[in-house]
Amino acid sequence: MSTSITTAATSSPTNLIEQSKRLAAFQSVTSHLLPFPNYTRIGIGSGSTVVYVVEAISTLLPATTLSTMAFYPTGAQSEELIEAAGFNLQYINKLPPGALLDVCFDGADEVDPALNLIKGGGACLWQEKIVATSSRKFVCVADFRKISPALGTQWTKGIPIEVLPLAANRVLGELERMGSINPKIRPGLPGKAGAIVTDNGMWIVDAPFKPLKVEGTSDREKGEWQVDELADALIKIPGVAEIGLFYGKNGKELREAEGGAQKPVEAYFGMEDGSVKVLSA
Ligand SMILES: O=C[C@H](O)[C@H](O)[C@H](O)COP(=O)(O)O
């Protein structure tokens, strides 16, 4: 299902893409936090778009509501973001067994019509997946560039895969055998030697594949995969810690009370014309 909303959020960033991210962030917070002031545990993802989610929460929520909330980061960047906003910072490892966050907001690098996601373009994906699946609702916030007919169409750098450093070359070999086109270990800072190191001490391998089908027939001999098939195969490669494909059942299928969904219940996209497009599970 898709709806389009025109928001009244003010647009201070001058850049169209930044404005779009901010519009989507304000709309997602309006739809998922304002009607539910009883929410107390909020997950905050990583990347440039969640910066506006934190701004929206700061701007839109009354101080009395904010004072009852705890915010759970997905890595070093979102931890700093939560602290800088003056929010109550908590950690997912302290969440009691069986407890869930009420909602988690996070960005994405690419979103297909079934709300499968590619994430990890900024090297955060493992903690993001833990926080998303520890939430009753995962809400994705993005700009118009992320809307895609099939994963791998818009985000062509490859599926980010978090790997144990000593297994990286072996993982590259497996990926080539599976039809990945020139998978690579992601380098660190420009001009510096060495691979990028994640918040978890791992490396990232970027594995491009032909655009991933949501359904229908696939031909693995030709390197053609369905999202779920490929994800299930990638996660089984020894040395792979986690993959940047968020896939499987959505929150509505899994029931909000139980959490566990990697896919969002809704994705908000700031559009070029100032509207916000919403894709629902
Ligand atoms: O590793 C980074 C995360 O998965 C981000 O959520 C994703 O890359 C989207 O980031 P941005 O909002 O900056 O486009």
UniProtKB/TrEMBL annotation:
One GO cellular component term: cytoplasm
Q: Which GO terms describe its biological process?
A: D-ribose metabolic process; pentose-phosphate shunt, non-oxidative branch
Q: Indicate yes or no for the key word Isomerase.
A: yes
Q: In which pathway does it act?
A: Carbohydrate degradation; pentose phosphate pathway; D-ribose 5-phosphate from D-ribulose 5-phosphate (non-oxidative stage): step 1/1
Q: Which domain of life is it from?
A: Eukaryota
Q: NCBIfam families from the entry?
A: rpiA
What's this protein's name?
A: Ribose-5-phosphate isomerase
Q: Which organism is it from?
A: Triangularia setosa
